[in-house]
Amino acid sequence: MKNYALALLIPSLFIFVSSCNKSKAAEEKNELEKTAVVAVDSVKKKAVTTIDTADYNRRMLALSNNDTTGRWPVKTPYPLPGALLPYNRIIAFYGNLYSTRMGILGEIPRAQMIKQLQGEVAKWQAADSSTKAIPALHYIAVTAQGAPGKDNMHRMRMPFKQIDTVLKWAKPIDALVFLDIQVGHSTVKAEVTELVKYLSLPNVHLGIDPEFSLKNGHVPGTKIGSFTADDINDAIDILAKVVRENKLTPKVLVVHRFTQGMVTDYKRIKKLPEVQVVMDMDGFGSRVLKRSTYLTYIYREPVQFTGFKLFYKNDNWNNWKMYTPEELLKFTPKPSYIQFQ
Asked: Are 307 and 336 in contact (CB under 8 A)?
């Protein structure tokens, strides 16, 4: 009322104030409009994937080696930004620090092992300059056991101090770390959950091995076990949650396989932007046998990416000879993950 009375007594002042208020209101409106535009632009930028989809498609097509059956490349959602595949090829050394018999990781001294791993990475980089070869340490963090153990699960969880050691070994060479689980009579969900604090680290990924998953009461090692799509999806769901909650780049999940029965219902395996699934041909033997296994169980049942395991001893026995990078690059599809045991 006081301002209204003054306006009646002093019209010129009212006009001046009104004019100023209109000017101020106009300025505020412009600022709001600018803010709204910025906000809309920000939303648009967040909604659009930042990967180069044309480049991604080209790389996936190259991995398929011009497959004409329509199986490869597999149609999946585009990955989150920062995905390792198909931009890199992972070269991994596999094993356990308690055993000299489970793989090259743990079989020979650390310095010698690291040097040998770097040599294998260099060979793959020379064989395919279009894809960066990167090192990885693939550590068996849960091992299947013949004895039932205190909880009757026929598996042993390695102490976290061993995982910490592998992480320290990986750091100087900028290597990835894979934690591998052999569930025995336990479950994928139970064992992967125990490792979430490590999987929450940017450079730590996961491997799961159906060979040692015995659901029917058999002792691990006496029969070849299996995973259903639900088992594998449990791992995928946990990894996807870890990625979302920690704002990480996609995790790689390696699933070992060398028989038909080791993985069932492969078409039901989830395909998410947060997780990249590698089906790894895990058998040893002659070249003919290994190629046949890759064709039968990996090529013909496509999931997303493929891997190939090489055994320094078992693939070089009885006049057998281990595949070279140049030879494996002729496979359809080209493997994105190479594991040495």
From this structure: yes
Give me 191's structure tokens: 């064992």
Please report which residue ranges of the chain form alpha helices under DSSP H.
2-9, 11-47, 53-63, 104-107, 110-127, 160-170, 188-193, 196-199, 229-246, 287-293, 325-328
Structural contact between residues 250 and 243, judged by C-beta atoms closer than 8 angstroms: yes
CA-closest candidate to residue 161, choices 108, 98, 102: 98
pLDDT in tens, 255-306: 999 999 999 999 999 999 999 999 999 988 889 999 999 999 999 999 999 9
The pTM of this model reads: 0.84
Report the DSSP pairing between strands 132-144 and 251-257.
Answer: unpaired
Q: What is the CA radius of gyration of the chain?
A: 28
Return the SS3 of 206: strand
Cα 90 to Cα 322: distance, rounded to the nearest angstrom: 18
Q: How far apart are CA 311 and CA 341, in angstroms?
A: 5
pLDDT tens across 297-327, in order?
999 999 999 999 999 988 887 778 899 999 9
Q: Write the single-letter amino acid at 98.
A: Y
DSSP secondary structure string for all residues of 102-128: S-HHHHB-HHHHHHHHHHHHHHHHHH-
Q: Please say whether the dihedral angle defined by the alpha carbons of residues 144, 146, 147 and 148, taken in this order, is positive or negative.
A: positive
Whole-angstrom distance, CA of residue 299 vs CA of residue 64: 10
How many Å apart are CA 109 and CA 107, to the nearest integer? 7
Strands 251-257, 88-95: pairing is unpaired
